[in-house]
From TrEMBL:
<comment type="similarity">
    <text>Belongs to the glycosyl hydrolase 1 family.</text>
</comment>
<dbReference type="GO" id="GO:0008706">
    <property type="term" value="F:6-phospho-beta-glucosidase activity"/>
</dbReference>
<protein>
    <submittedName>
        <fullName>Aryl-phospho-beta-D-glucosidase BglH</fullName>
        <ecNumber>3.2.1.86</ecNumber>
    </submittedName>
</protein>
<dbReference type="InterPro" id="IPR033132">
    <property type="entry name" value="GH_1_N_CS"/>
</dbReference>
<dbReference type="InterPro" id="IPR017853">
    <property type="entry name" value="GH"/>
</dbReference>
<dbReference type="GO" id="GO:0005829">
    <property type="term" value="C:cytosol"/>
</dbReference>
<feature type="active site" description="Nucleophile">
    <location>
        <position position="360"/>
    </location>
</feature>
<keyword id="KW-0326">Glycosidase</keyword>
<keyword id="KW-0378">Hydrolase</keyword>
<dbReference type="InterPro" id="IPR001360">
    <property type="entry name" value="Glyco_hydro_1"/>
</dbReference>
<dbReference type="InterPro" id="IPR018120">
    <property type="entry name" value="Glyco_hydro_1_AS"/>
</dbReference>
<dbReference type="GO" id="GO:0016052">
    <property type="term" value="P:carbohydrate catabolic process"/>
</dbReference>
<dbReference type="Pfam" id="PF00232">
    <property type="entry name" value="Glyco_hydro_1"/>
</dbReference>
Amino acid sequence: MIFPDDFLWGGAVAANQCEGAYHEDGKGLDIQDVMPKGILSGPTAEPTPDNLKLKAIDFYHRYPEDIKLFAEMGFKVFRTSIAWSRIYPNGDDAEPNEEGLAFYDRLFDECRKYGIEPLVTISHYETPLHLAKAYNGWANHALIGFYERYVRTLFERYRGKVKYWLTFNEINSVLHQPLLSGGIMTPREKLSLTDLYQACHHEFVASALATKLAHEMMPEAKVGCMILAMPIYPLTPAPDDMIAVMQANHFNDFFGDMHVRGRYPGYMKRYFRENGIEIRMTPEEELLLRENTVDFVSFSYYVSICEGRGGENGGGNILGGKKNPYLKASEWGWQIDPQGLRYTLNRFYDRWQKPLFIVENGLGARDVLVDDGKGGRTVEDDYRIAYLNDHLVQVGEAIADGVPVMGYTTWGCIDLVSASTAQMSKRYGFIYVDRNDDGTGTLARYPKKSFYWYRDVIASNGAALKA
């Protein structure tokens, strides 16, 4: 396989799933601190002991050990997020929390010590809890100002340390998970379509503001949007099924269109008209959106789905969809489709003509720790190697197709707490972390078989992949 010489190989995590230390050094609560059962459960009033994310894998204290392991694999880039409530504990504070800022200084310095570029998600499913409770999250226009203050603080502090920034994680998920994605406390069934799309508009404006500030304050920086990508196939060649696919694609393409083209597309204007949706926006906001588009498009990719008449529901994760009868599924029911990644890369580049960055892709599985025959312990995760190999082969095919792919960061490069189920047993990493679903375990780190496989893939710049 042919990958560019400057291809950014690496891995990805989120602060709320790995850091722990939820109450240390001035950090405020965020919405994940009161979601002990993952995205499918409602929030609790206060943090509860059964929430594994409160301690997670203790990355907050163990990051030097973990970054060193990433460096051993040869990472060129490490995607992580900043916990907003570490910097502004309530979200609407007048001044930032210095201890929180200092932690990320140490983290980014550790990355750069090994020549690893940080790729930072500014908001990754961890809205400060106070903003959710007091303002109803991104349903409220006031969050634009709080977010602007937050990103200005980040850019002032970390310019020169962070070159690549993402404004929101999987921004299109707010339509399906308004609490997780938008910090919106109102139950989804009680939100009108206008409420949901107004929240989207607030995030679009905030994202454009962040892009504007980044380009002004850090001319060398690159800013991307981040969307949940899920290719959609028709169940049959029937024209009705093709139209169903087109309409389903519109609801996801909309978020990329807004970030890349900077204006509301005609298909959404029609949808708004026909559903009585009225978006409140000012001429100044329209100009801001138009003039501050992103430098690249990043996305997560795990599954593809089908749409059309009939079929069996349940092919996807957050976005739903129908099962593809031609694909196998993971233990958690996510259908495995490596070719869908090549298709997605081509479709996105055809549509947006922007560099693309795959910032999440991976296989969640129940790994078993075994003796390695050398006095240590490991995981024989050939299933993960096969999954990642097959997806990376398709990335290489897309690059051969002429698609400019900036890099690839596997999701959960070290085991962490699952966002969807709040389990440790759903493991993605190259590094096994000794922690169990009941909270027991030593937190010791053990490289898996895939650790050494990925090291070889990176060292060979993809030549070690098996087509």
